[in-house]
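Q: Can I borrow your eye for a moment on a structure tokenisation matter? Would you mind producing a protein record, from residues through to fold? Write it directly below this note and I will take it from there.
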Amino acid sequence: MRGPAGFLLCSLLLLALRCPEVATQDVQPDPKTPCANWMGGAPGYPGHNGLPGRDGKDGKDGQKGEKGEEGVQGPKGDQGEIGVPGREGPRGFPGYPGQKGEKGEGAFVYRSAFSVGLTERAPHPNVPIRFSKIFYNEQSHYDASTGKFLCSIPGMYYFAYHLTVYLTDVKVSLYKKDKAVIFTYDQFQKNNVDQASGSVLLHLSSGDEVWLQVYGEGDNNGVYADNINDSTFMGFLLYPDLDDH
């Protein structure tokens, strides 16, 4: 085929052979090229989103920052519950003695006591024996002029006597309110000095009197005393009747 038609056919064949070479060199042909306009298909649809990638490794800690300014103090919180008591600690050393306190008012002490001795020989019978040697009579509850003890504090009392016996027998009685309470008898042995004694507990009321006297006639008044022999009489309060004070 000759002439202009044959020339056009040869040009198209040459162009078709050249386009595959260009396609092998570029994955996506340039849309501006003539081949792309001649052989390009319809535009595709956008692809789906891919899956998220995995978290990366934690980075290294940065350097420690500078200390910040102190903040404003917050309000006081509520008081917490009382905790369990702790174990007892070790015992401490003794402290120093404190200063002496002022003298307080002492409780009233009830006192009543006497102790007396005989100074005369052979006292008269049937009358109180007057013990005029005073050993103790601070409260003056014993009257040496009468030989009687006068109760001023009601309560329980103890009385005792120790008599020297000489020259004749002795029979004495301890009296309370004109009534003999106990008796003591001692038979004198010739050329000898003997002893007679007695004791008793008595409850006395205020105003009661107690004394010692020879019982019977004159043959029984051998109570004796001198500078080396004593005959004594004593008594004291054991405890008072608190209901009466």
Observations:
- Helices lie at 4-25, 34-39.
- Residues 4-25 form the longest helix (22 residues).
- The chain has a mean pLDDT of 83.
